[in-house]
Amino acid sequence: MGRTEPGAGRGDSFHLTGHYAGAAPERQPDLSWQVQCCASIPARREAAAAGVVFLVDDDAAVRCALARLIAVAGHRVMTFDSASEFLDHRYDGRTPACLVLDVRMPGVGGLDLQRELNAARAPLPIIFITGHGDVATTVQAMKEGANDFLTKPVEESALLRAVDQALCRAASDLHKRAEQDLIRHRLDRLTPREREVLALLVQGRLNKQAAYELGITEKTIKVHRAHVMEKMNVHTLVELARAADKAGVALPAAFERP
């Protein structure tokens, strides 16, 4: 089972709950992200520092040594001796996390685990470590989205730098997902007519044009527009279009207009 290696951590414990990220059931978004995630880059770096490093390596000596190194740098570490053990564990997806992963292990190898996480749409920033590195393996890992690829014996500064970068990426990804969740939550509050108006507004239609296309009065369009702006918590059409684009939110086809 997942463990905190001796010397890894500062006396605190880390409990993993829920299914692995990406497999969690639908839920209402935690709107507290506005306090936690809409902060500056330094604040996101602070959030990353509170993250966790999952270390997967079948070599106990290497695993323990790397765990201690990462822990001394101030990060929480959880270790696993196989990819299967890691997959059996649970991660709530709400904490910045990265994976330090050996490429060659009995059973499920590092690249196989990477593919499985990607297929489940539950990717974590991955730092591969290996004593058998080759160009083809490195290229494949990077194509699949790996953050870094280090060879054993691992240079301490290189590993810690890679971990810092991976956790910052994880914190940034969480921030983006929180924005997407919030905007989708706000979209869900719109009526069908308000969604139609929204679709026309973000496509650049004037009030008069939108009224003509929907067969309603310009005054009614203005009322719907005010409701859309209020529910989406924006003040200008530029903010409205930018929010939808940033979150990657696509309006239902039924509401799209040519």
Report on the architecture of this protein.
Residues 183-248 form the HTH luxR-type domain. Helix content is 50%, strand content 10%. It is an alpha/beta fold and 258 residues long. A five-stranded parallel sheet has the order 2-1-3-4-5, with helices on both faces. The longest helix has 33 residues, at 156-188. The chain is elongated. The termini are far apart.
What is the element string, with H for helices and E for strands? HHEHEHEHEHEHHHHH
| Portion in beta strands | 5-15%
Q: Major β-sheet, in short? A: 5 strands, parallel
- The CATH architecture of the largest domain can be given as 3-Layer(aba) Sandwich
Low-pLDDT windows of residues: 5-40, 252-258
Q: Can you tell me the number of structural domains?
A: 2
Q: Indicate the structural class.
A: alpha/beta
What is the share of helical residues? 40-55%
CATH class placement of the largest domain = Alpha Beta
Task: List the strand order in the largest sheet.
Answer: 2-1-3-4-5
Radius of gyration: 23 Å
CA-CA gap between termini:
55 Å
Count of helical segments? 11
Mean pLDDT: 77
Shape: elongated
GO molecular function, one term: DNA binding
Protein name: DNA-binding response regulator
Domain Response regulatory: 52-167
Keywords: DNA-binding, Phosphoprotein, Transcription, Transcription regulation, Two-component regulatory system
